[in-house]
Amino acid sequence: MTTTTSLSARDAAPAATGxxxxxxxxxxxxxxxxxxxxxxxxxxxVNVALPTIDRDLAAGPALLELVVAGYGLSxxxxxxxxxxxxxxxxxxxxxLAGMAAFGLTSLVCGLAPDAWTLVxxxxxxxxxxxxxxxxxxxxxxxxxxxxxxxxxLSLYGATAGxxxxxxxxxxxxLVAADIAGTGWRAIFLxxxxxALLGLLLAARAVPETRSDRPAPxxxxxxxxxxxSLVTLLAPLTEGRAAGWPVWTWVSLVxxxxxxxxxxxxxxxxxxxGGTPLVPPSLLGLVSLRRGLAIVLPFSVGxxxxxxxxxxxxxxxxxxxxxxxxxxxxxxxxxxFVASLAGPRLVGRWGTRVxxxxxVIQALGLGLLAWTxxxxxxxxxxWSLLPGMAVAGLGQGFQLPVLFRxxxxxxxxxxxxVGSGVMVTTQQSALALGVATLGSLFLSLAGSSxxxxxTALVTTLLVQLGLVVLTLPLSLRLPSMR
Length: 481
Hints:
Number of strands: 0
Largest sheet: none
Order of helices and strands: HHHHHHHHHHHHHHHHHH
Shape: globular
CATH topology of the largest domain: Growth Hormone, Chain: A
CATH superfamily of the largest domain: MFS general substrate transporter like domains
């Protein structure tokens, strides 16, 4: 399959023959995008609420990191399995089940009497998200075509990026509002009525789709993928707060062996005509392989940035939850504007939009690093506005286009698997960014505000290096004009 054609046949024109394909209307698209927004919002919404959770539940640093990491781990580990189950049992059915479970686990999070209950509920909430999110892209992939398909994927990219930023903004507002004395609990309880609305809309407007040739669950592959992600992400997330005990080092030693065993099992099953959880032949699609190579460092940088900024603004500059969340509004606004302009720009310039976006993002991060270095600790949200806006603009030119690139050649019968692979890569990278860049920042920051300023500059420069790394990769993306 050539890498210089515009897109898959799905993005070119609807099929002229064959059975009628399910159609995802505007209300159905809104509903699945709502399902895409909720898990991503909840990954980031807790960042600004961690200080109040700590005060209320006496959680301590290790348990606070588990509140974030427990959700991210179960979410990342089960995403590909969630995509496979949607292919097998029907994506609408799994979307409804995931939405119902998400609402229920959010209620348990909001009512948690102690820190360990909150951690357990967050793990279950991540599992619910892993059931729901892969069905979104798979449904879009299977029930839209032509210009509607391109627009739906662009809107998905805009929703994903905006949700990751809006999570911390919304979290700050809800914590500060202290609705009916609920404090931090409101960031979870607000999901309950939204999930109920999503269930009603999905039952009415989302068509049922499934793979024509559903594959059984790959149990060995699922277990080995889970072991690989856990042995990498758990020690990196918990190691610093726990003092790097022996289990963290043992886990990191196990990781490469678990990852190697996973790849060997999947490759062997693929060569024998089996049904591996992540078919290595799927990575033979140039668009998917090259797109994921950029999504990975992009998401590592983004996840770390959002966590570090929340901590630096609240603890280093003593900003309140609302003010620290509002500092991200320029980034969210610029990201959304760039996302909406993306389809038109791609139609004219193709994937050259992505390296241009990387350059713009790098300029924004450089401007933020210079602002922090020259102005800390006398910074305000206004002084951060230019850098935030420029960085958000660059991100908005990249992420939605990358999603389109990754899925452009994935056949409809593998939509669930392809979507699961992409969102697993993104989610794992977000969690890895929090673990690595977050640990780097906290290690450098110490207990003084001045130390946090230096740590923030260093972290921004590391993210800038990740953006520079993606530039040569983005120049090799297949054309999409």
